[in-house]
What we know:
Elements: H1 2-19, H2 24-27, E1 31-37, E2 40-52, E3 54-62, E4 67-71, E5 86-87, E6 92-97, H3 99-105, H4 107-129, H5 135-160, E7 163-165, E8 170-174, E9 183-184, E10 189-206, E11 218-222, E12 231-238, E13 248-256, E14 267-284, E15 289-291, E16 294-301, E17 304-309, E18 311-315, E19 319-324, E20 331-335, E21 346-348
Parallel strand pairs: 1-21
Antiparallel strand pairs: 1-20, 2-14, 3-10, 4-6, 4-9, 5-8, 6-7, 8-10, 10-13, 11-12, 11-14, 12-13, 14-19, 15-16, 16-17, 18-19
Amino acid sequence: MKYKSLLxxxxxxxxxxxNNQPQSNRNEIExxxxxxxxxxxxxxxxxxxxxxxxxxxxxxxxSEMSGIYQLQNNPKTGKPYKLGDVVKKGQLxxxxxxxxxxxxxxLDSKKLSLEIAEQEQSKQxxxxxxxxxxxxxxxxxxxxxxxxxxxxxxxxxxxxxMNIKAPFDGVIVSLPHYTVNGRVEQGKPMVGIMxxxxxxxxxxxxxxxxxxxxxxxxxxxxxxTLPEDTLGGVISELSPAISAETRTFxxxxxxxxxxxxxxxxxxxxxxxxxDKAESVIIIPKDVIxxxxxxxxxxxxxxxxxxxxxxxxxxxxxxxxxxxxxxNENDNLIIRGYETLRENSRVKVMK
Length: 350
């Protein structure tokens, strides 16, 4: 019995000691966190839209006459033109040869007719000054010169129809195949050229954004195949009318594509910059916690998590401006904050 009494007393002492152990030991466990030292930067308020990027200039050239097909060589490569070749305005791409057509124009004959008419005009002018012919007779020679000049110009225009030239600087985007030295009929497609160093896209914007969107606002343009490349653009046109069916209004964006990174027909995303703040505190949006209309985050001070109530401003897709509650050089907890409480002990992980 004495042995049992001693055992019971020992157990009681141990239980008492355990119950009297400080409870704060559990709270002394340090929660691992990652921090970001805050620096000032810039942030923009963006309104997003999407659309198809199109070439500012594009043309499909057809044959204006029939003739023997002669694809010309690209002077840059020394080889026949092909898809993707860059061409300059006025560059000859295809020539159609047709001797019968050339003979019918009779270019040499028209040049000679103009020369004879001009000689006659000079002769009549000299006679008129001496009183040898009347004013009407001299004016008739002027009419003949004018008609001869028009005939020659029309002959040059008709001969030019045998040449398929680039009407502007651009890139060959279509080039149907024809057998060299084969005959091509009038009206056949010859070559397609686009200038997409500057592009445009038509957009539809929600009615709710009409107070923010203005002409000449800058735009960021991106495409999923070019995640690291953001192109610049600008709102060039805006319609004042709201569609009763879609509750949207139309606009147009001009895109600077001088490096030809975007291709005509690409579906792109456009972020219109409607407001911007410089030299402000910016943090990731996903670290913000909220409770009863209160927004807060955690910062680290002396290995302790401290709650900071915050006020926010502009935001973009990932980040948000802090107008109150945080300062430059604060150590914001960006990982491990989910289970923290006020004054939790933390361990900053590198």
